[in-house]
Amino acid sequence: TGEDCIAESEADIDVLLEMGFGKCTLSVQGPRGEHLKAGCLAGRRIVTSYPKLAQKFFAALEEPGKPTQIKCISGSVEAAIGLGLADGIVDLVETGTTMREAGLEEVAV
């Protein structure tokens, strides 16, 4: 993590040097095999460690009067769908192994 934490904090910083490591992407994920689009998760239950970034993403997709219910947790975010706590998640992905093992697939990056 790094750029994701800065974006979530909304800090105004100047990047002096890109370090060239840390190849994670922040992605919207849903249950594998449902072939969801990001808009299908707008207005539903989303769990993430990045609530501000998730809210910004889903705000443009929401229908009037149907806000996305975003809950912030730390730890194993990918377990939230299997536990029935969420319909989708927003989480960091590097290789995708943990995502696939949890039965999830990327819906948007």
Automatic annotation (TrEMBL):
What does it catalyze?
Answer: 1-(5-phospho-beta-D-ribosyl)-ATP + diphosphate = 5-phospho-alpha-D-ribose 1-diphosphate + ATP
Q: So which domain of life are we looking at? A: Eukaryota
Recorded GO terms, molecular function? ATP phosphoribosyltransferase activity
GO CC list: cytoplasm
Segments forming domain ATP phosphoribosyltransferase catalytic = 1-108
The keyword 4Fe-4S belongs to this UniProt entry's keyword annotation: no
Keywords of the record, alphabetical order, are: Amino-acid biosynthesis, Glycosyltransferase, Histidine biosynthesis, Transferase
Q: Which residues form a coiled coil?
A: none
> Tell me, which GO biological process terms does this entry list?
L-histidine biosynthetic process
Annotated EC: 2.4.2.17
Part of which pathway?
Amino-acid biosynthesis; L-histidine biosynthesis; L-histidine from 5-phospho-alpha-D-ribose 1-diphosphate: step 1/9
Q: NCBIfam families attached here? A: hisG
What name appears for this protein in its UniProt entry? ATP phosphoribosyltransferase
Say which species the protein is native to.
Zooxanthella nutricula
